[in-house]
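Q: I'm teaching a short session on how sequence maps to structure, and I want students to see two examples side by side rather than one. Could you give me a first protein with its sequence written out and its structure tokens following it? Keep the formatting plain so it prints cleanly on a handout.
A: Of course. Example one:
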Amino acid sequence: MTEKLKRLASNWRLYVILIVLLGGMVFLLSTAGTAYAVDSPDQPPGQMDGEIDLAPQTQAGVADCLACHSLPNQFLTFPDGEKISVTITLDEYNLSIHGAMGFDCQTCHKDITGFPHPEVQAQNLREFVVNREDICIDCHPAQYSQLKDSIHYTVLSEGNINAPVCSDCHNPHARSVLGQNPLQMEMAVTSEICASCHNSIYVEYAQSVHGKALFQQDNPDVPGCTDCHGTHDIADPTTAMARLTSPELCAKCHSNHAIMDKYGLSTDVLSTYLSDFHGKSVFVSEKLDPNQPVPEPVCYDCHGAHRTMETSNPLFNIQAKENLLSVCQKCHPDASINFPSAWLSHYIPSPSHFPLVYYVQRFYQVFVPTVIGGMALFVATDWGRRIWNNARSKQKEKHEDEDQKDNDEK
């Protein structure tokens, strides 16, 4: 017995080494790996440059996940060869709305509870993204309901997997807190997000008076994509209803005195449009049947939709008669050079805008009531005189009859 104890005592160093090795293996197994089968990072676990400094709002689950997922150059590779980065830095996540609100990874990744992670069934990146599109409904039911009424969801439900889903527009790991950035920055970023699918339209918008003001001057007074098209409940812009209601959409800004007065633009665009034949026809058609196409022009038929140019642009300025004529001839092919002169540029005539029209209008505002009023007065007095004469004539005949009757009795 004594010899056995002596042998154990002499091998105590070996036991300590074995215990340390087993402990290390348990620790590595509990923290190693990534969410999915990924390419090896340049820097393996245990060789990071310093400790992770967790922000107060970061949950413990995030720290566990980021022990691996914060390592650089990690990718999930799909069977078709496509890759997606699964590297998420702590700073990036903490600056996001989800990180700022203290949500941990399992709030969205409910299927991942430990390591190894469940095998990914998607065959490509797009299938992987689309398969996860309903995760957001748990926290954002109102927005998801709006999305189901949008043209994006309609296209997706018809089988087009390239239609955008939530994560295409909102990076769940890096979406900043709403209101954290200046309005013009949010508008610019949102427009650039739309460009990922609608690049040709984005290029037109960037060259327009609205796009130049936003991107080059940081001017928040101009509309961005979502100001006209909405955010989640984006309607089909090619329908008759969208066309008929577009003047009201433009009027939201162009009837706003606080905005238009800064740039010396008329705020009477909607009222002047509705007062002419084009606007009246569109207005009546909208009320009778908003789904019935009409040939009369709306705002963007003359001014353009995304490539609306400034009035000083010599090539696209419809203030210039020759440019306006080409616009009018789209619907009026026989229009002559003087045809556009009837347009008053959405201004109500005044001494400063179209004074000749203003004073002629004022003249007729006095002349026409005077003539019609004079005629009405003449007719009224003529009728009154006739009624008076008829009454006197009857009274005279009555008196004559009475006098004749008295003479006969005598």
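Q: Perfect. Now a second example for contrast.
A: Example two:
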Amino acid sequence: MDDDDDDDDPDGAGIGTGMASTSTGSGGTSLDDTSPDASSGATSAGTSSAATSATSGATNVEGGTSAGNGTGDPSGTTLGGESSEIGETATVPAGTSGESDEGDVTATQGMETGETSGEPACGNGVVESGEACDGDPVAQTCGELGVPDIGTLRCVECRFDLSGCAPQGMVLVPGGPFTMGDVTVAAPVRTVTLDAFYIMREEATVAAYAECVETGVCTEPQVEGLCNWGSAAASDYPINCISWYQAEAFCRGWGGRLPTEAEWEKAARGTDERAFPWGSEAPSCERVVFAEEVAGCGTFNSHPVGTRPMGASPYGALDMAGNLYEWTADWFAPYDAAALVNPTGPAVGVSKVLRGGSYATRAPDGLWVYRRHPDDPDNPYGQEDGVRCVQDLPER
């Protein structure tokens, strides 16, 4: 879609396509929302290979999300409170796992030390009272904290960081409620509850899409203008110039599906009603690839994926604002105020919903995490349109 105006008018919308066949909604594993810290190590969202690397970090936030640590690393949130499942509110004593009698997990919240004179500060390598952990590697595993035993559990400022407990190239978005929408452009605002899911840390790359083409599942994209396909130097750039149907086929062939609007928004926003993935600060080219003065932060094009770690979402997902718009599973329509659990949008429609803004987005409000952009799902010429996939958690 073209982003000259940053409004909600589709680029070429209005072509009716009927009902699309795609799997939406989350799987059967429900983990209470924890807004985990952004974990380190980013890989390409390909079918099997890693194409890029993005540095990430985390900031202590109790029961919510953080807007950034100001060091060039993306912010995240920590686990805390009092729930019997993975949630922003659960605590685990130092040196113990989170298993409850029912097999659910209590998430961890390491408390800050050093606030009282004479107490050792977090970071001395010893797990002390009030700390969940102190340094990497940690003794516990992802499985011991109640999530699938995939990926790497990390310790960030003496608190467990579950965002790395995910398949390679993905981050974990815990289940639970969050505030979806905005009174000005995405009403009604409502509390939506989702199951836990994994989402690609980065937008799908040209290299990842090429693997899908090789398998015969995906068809080749357009190569006109600013399309990244066909350039040997663009393997780590996000795939663009693909229709909704091509995006859906890619995610299916990759072993996942397109995110619902609700899943996309939570992965970008967390639980503290922020306007941008990184928080409330105004967009800048340090955080996001957009048209701050010139499109693409001066390049007139998209950038390689994962080049803006300061703009990471609360869960460590990169480029969820700017670079490319991202297709979602939902048909565009006014929100159903009664759809409060794993909403999937209407069954039929004319336009599909893109999220996130692009390298050509000028106005900051075009990068809002709740901004919706309808577009014709048959449009294969969207130089600003890309894709990011999700996966359901395996059932336990």
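Q: What should students look for in example two?
A: Point them to this: The CA atoms of residues 188 and 337 lie 6 Å apart. Also worth mentioning: The helical segments are 206-215, 244-254, 261-269.
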